[in-house]
Amino acid sequence: MTTARPASLSASLPALPPPPAALRRLIARLPVHPPSLLLAAALNRTLRPRLPDDAAAALAGHTVEIEVRDFGVRLRLALRDGRFHSAPDHGPVTLRIAADAASYLRLLRGNDDADRLFFERALVMEGDTEYGLLLKNTLDAIGPLLHWPAPPR
Amino acid sequence: MSASTHAASPPPRKPRLVCPAGSLRALTLAIDAGADAVYMGLKDATNARNFAGLNFDLAQARDGIAYARSRGREVLMALNTFADARAPGRWFTAVDAAAGLGIDALICADTAVLAHARDHHPQLRLHLSVQASATTQEAIEFYRERYGIRRAVLPRVLTLSQVEQVCRHSTVEIEVFGFGSLCVMVEGRCALSSYATGQSPNTAGVCSPPSAVRWEDGAGGVSARLNGVLIDRYAPDEPRGYPTLCKGRFDVDGTRDYALEEPTSLNTLSLLPQLMDMGIAAIKIEGRQRSPAYVEQVTRVWRAAIDDCAAQPSRFAVQPEWTAALGRWAEGQQHTLGAYDRPWR
Q: CA angle, corner B327, sides to B325 and B329, nearest 5?
């Protein structure tokens, strides 16, 4: 017996209305540096203290590009000298990740599985697969980086 | 209990729920969600999910065992790859480490590893891994006589009636897979990944090692390559699966299709009453490579289903919300009863 898979369950997240297409196109043309700096600062507060030394060493020295598709935002980060930094706008990246904001939020809150999002093409990973897997497994082992909004009681 | 007594009247029992843990976080969530036992591996090639960033070092294993034990649950260690003839010592050292940790049972496939455990740690409970591919009562009995195994995990190649046959006559506990990604179903005997990459689950603990996998975005969609071999090409809106040779689509006699296996997930919820009636001792959930979120939610569904079935086996019905929840985590477009329900042998 084989059963068709049901549609995905709705995630218990607040709606995040993406910007209109014209604004998205404008955002996409903006430099990656300012949002990357913000994310690097956030990760240095939330992720870096929880990152095991061996994982930090293995992840260091590579540039990762993160695209928030529905917002047209693109960020580039690298872990160097023990801290996250904004990485240059151009040039090769080790890994490129693309997903919508809601998918990132679910992953950050520990509510979803990167493999599942990948199967459904809600998450795209390109580049060094081994590095991507190391990053995914490291983040999975650490647990949620975001606790907003609070889970329903 | 003698073998004949056991075979004559298998006691009705509630199968233990055995859940995957690729990390300490997954282990704690599985326990909290109701797993009776979790299975984990060390950070090396001694287990069949040897992926970067996954698995336990000794300190994490110690913490995980303490967490489980304080809640009355068990931790099993998968040490289920086949020892490398060039350096078998790593497997024996891992057995020693598991014994030192006080693991509740070791899941092994290699006879050399089983023999080491039997000879050096006679108190250690041994489970026969699915990778040993023991499909008959006679094969299982061989492992019991020689190595003292206490439980055998059946490969996913057997039909339900074959599982029943083994179960009714077995002198050791029987564990079956309940849910998770399926492979081509020749556990312990598959070398497809080695053919393309030189590494396979039995040799290196990895199927399609990530260093050999490339996803290439092109005009016609996304191509998945394994060491250069084109495994599949997905249209932009088409779901993907794990990039393994067995789940690739190939041109065979002019037709492009899944030549060996479709990417599907096993889901045997509907068989629970029958499995319990057979006296299955444990049901295993696949997925040490999956996220803690998967582990937690799949465990929660199976906990509810097993409890429900144990309370009223004759009135058991698969709840739609269980199917929906499990469907959400499945690989591929479908879930299936796999070989349990296959008309051919």
A: 80
Q: What is the dihedral of CA A92, A93, A96, A102, to 10 degrees?
A: -110
> Would you tell me which residues 129-158 of chain B have a C-beta closer than 8 angstroms to some C-beta of chain A?
none
* Digit-coded pLDDT (tens) for B153-207: 998 878 888 899 999 999 999 999 999 887 765 666 788 899 999 998 877 888 8
Q: Do you know the residue count of chain A?
A: 153
Question: Does residue B187 lie within any of the structural domains?
Answer: no
Give the list of residues 6+ apart from residue B148 with CB closer than 8 angstroms, or none: B118, B122, B126
> Structurally, how many domains does chain B consist of?
2
Cβ contact, residue pair B336, A138, below 8 Å: no
Hey, are the CB atoms on A129 and B210 less than 8 Å from each other? yes
- Identify whether A110 is part of a domain: yes
d(CA B108, CA B125) in angstroms, rounded, equals 11
User: A30 CA to chain B: closest CA distance, Å?
Assistant: 24
Do residues A107 and A114 make contact, with C-beta atoms less than 8 angstroms apart? yes
Instruction: Answer yes or no: is A78 within a domain.
Output: yes
Residues of A in contact with B337 (CB under 8 A): 1-2
In a domain, A4, yes or no: no
In a shared domain, residues B254 and B271: no
* Reported ipTM exceeds the 0.85 cut: no
Helix (H, G, I), strand (E, B) or coil at A33: helix
DSSP for B41-98, written as a single string = -BSSTTSS---TT-SB-HHHHHHHHHHHHHTT-EEEEEE-SPPPTT-THHHHHHHHHH
Tell me whether residue B155 is in a domain: yes
Please indicate, yes or no, if residue B53 is contained in any of the structural domains: yes
- Per the structure, the complete domain to which residue B249 belongs is given by 192-258
Q: What is the pLDDT of residues B240-257, one digit of tens each?
A: 888 899 889 999 999 988
- Structural domains in chain A (count): 1
Which strands, in side-by-side order, build the sheet including A63-68?
A83-86, A73-80, A63-68, A95-99, A123-127
